[in-house]
Amino acid sequence: MSNRPEKAAQDTRSETGMAGPGSGQLHSRLARVRVILIKTTHPGNIGATARAMKVMGLSSLHLVTPKIFPNAEATAMASGADDLLQTAVVHESLDSALAGCSLVLGTSARLRSLSMPMLDARRAANQAVVESDSHEVALLFGRERYGLTNEEMQRCQFLVNIPSNPEYSSLNLAQAVQIMSYELRVAAQGFADVTVDPLDWEPVDDRQMEGLFEHLEQTLLDIRFLNPKQPKRLMMRLRRLFNRARPDQNEINILRGILKASQESSGNGDTSTK
Fold it and tell me: pTM of the entire structure?
């Protein structure tokens, strides 16, 4: 039997396994990218996700209220990446999973009535890698049947769309994770053909942004600007505005100072805020 096919396979493994410049930096960049699965129904998809992540060098797997986990099917589908299952962090809420993250990207195959900033998979991966040099980054994947809810999308600075056949655009959860993991590795190695400018300010994390939104909503109710019967539509637009702006800590302090003064002027100065 000829040894040529085996040699070709060895060559392919060598090429795909190249770490590129700075393998230590590559590892640290990818380690700060969290793959977050929300309410996954099938444990096999969790295992397949772990395998997709490990083969591309990602290691931070977070699960928000999975239906069944741990589970033997997850371990079987991980196919050797069960160490990621053992270190996976299970959360009771999305708030907990996003703690400390300053950039949140949400994957979505569907267009929504309220438009949000969109990135394709390659540009999103580059944005994530640039920011993971110094910040925690989250990549959200929704339920197998219908993805992320509108409320979960509002936690994101950007939505990510994976280009696909418009006549059949349904990707399996683990397939979507595999594509994004590949793009993240390419970006971390510096091989991507897009450029993202590094941040020249320090954006606050998800907890700080949520504190601002809660304070803002309460203030708008206090001054009777927001209709208490239909608050969501306006708050969605305001969330989009501030998520796009990505304020730093000083700007958050200024905004919340303005909100507090507005509450005091309206006679609601004792309203507690986070």
Answer: 0.84
